[in-house]
Amino acid sequence: MRERAQFDPDALARIAVREGWQAAVHDYLRARDPAAYRYATDPQTATWRLLLAPAEDARVLLLCPGLGVAPFLFAQEGAQVSCACASPAEAEYLRARASQQGLQRLSVCVWDGESPLAEADGRFDLLAAVGGGVRGAVLLREARRLLREGGELFWAGSRRELRPSECRPRLEAQGFVDLRAYGLIPSHRQPFFIVPLWSNTALEHCLGRLAQAYDFSEALPPAAWAAWRALVRRGWRTLQALGLTGAVCRRLPAYGLVARRNAGT
């Protein structure tokens, strides 16, 4: 999902260590790669974590988190966070930022993306891989080994990387149950509206998020907004009646999957 970096990761890490993570992000990164800057600073880029709501003292493992803000949000909320980073520069930046923010419950290691991680079996309550960088077979192997019984896996990727219908049998074969699929729909003010694809409430969910995110009062009076919502609902029901909603969902740019490790597997 993330594009190729438009900045020097080693330079970013050096600045974070010598001058502080804020200088690295706000002074260096923002001008060179606005998308990476937003990923490193905007909590809205980590709204996927709200699908999971781990316990306050949960043990969370993030695979290849990049420069994302998610590790710091989890740690600030009381989770014990481990990050397996794809490069030494990424690890150095995350380690420097965690130290400067006083987040002692956030640890970092460098991982080659293939070898088994040096973590105890069944240690984690949540394992997440967001934005690519981890092969599916490796992710499922590590999730099955490292998650406790009942622990949750969150797996997100682009439409090319991840198709819910194809991943379901793979997850079930590794002992995962309660699969929930989400569509990640870009918007111009927020990175994603997260739409549940397994239920018929997808449209209402989307409209509700729109109403929360935007102030339509200046552009649309309440009666016009209500009429527009009714028109959209009617159009969606027509697509459902024609059996076309699946085709619409298959055109979404990215997906997220949540699954639970079954007891006894």
Key features of this structure:
265 residues; alpha/beta; Rossmann fold; 8-stranded mixed β-sheet; 8 strands
CATH topology of the domain at 9-182 and 255-261: Rossmann fold
The computed structural class is alpha/beta
Cα Rg: 20 Å
Unreliable segments (pLDDT under 50, ≥5 consecutive)? none
Spatial sequence of strands, sheet with the most strands? 3-2-1-4-5-8-6-7
Total DSSP helices:
10
Any idea what the shape is?
globular
Mean pLDDT: 83
Helix content: 40-55%
What do we call the CATH homologous superfamily of the domain at 9-182 and 255-261?
Vaccinia Virus protein VP39
Strand content: 15-25%
Element-level helix/strand string: HHHEHEHEEHEHEEHHHE
CATH class descriptor of the domain at 9-182 and 255-261: Alpha Beta
Ends apart, CA distance between termini: 31 Å
Question: Can you walk through the features of this model?
Answer:
The model has no long low-confidence stretch (mean pLDDT 83). The protein is α/β, with parallel strands linked by helices and 265 residues long. It is globular. The protein has a domain at 9-182 and 255-261: Vaccinia Virus protein VP39 (Rossmann fold), CATH 3.40.50. It starts with 8 loop residues before the first helix and ends with a strand. The protein has helices at 9-18, 21-32, 34-41, 70-76, 88-100, 136-146, 164-173, 202-213, 222-241, 245-249; strands spanning 59-63, 80-85, 106-110, 124-129, 147-158, 176-185, 193-196, 254-261. Helix 5 links the parallel strand 2 (80-85) and strand 3.
Task: Give the structure's gist in a few sentences.
This protein has helices spanning 9-18, 21-32, 34-41, 70-76, 88-100, 136-146, 164-173, 202-213, 222-241, 245-249; strands at 59-63, 80-85, 106-110, 124-129, 147-158, 176-185, 193-196, 254-261. It is α/β, with parallel strands linked by helices. It has a domain at 9-182 and 255-261: Vaccinia Virus protein VP39 (Rossmann fold), CATH 3.40.50.150.
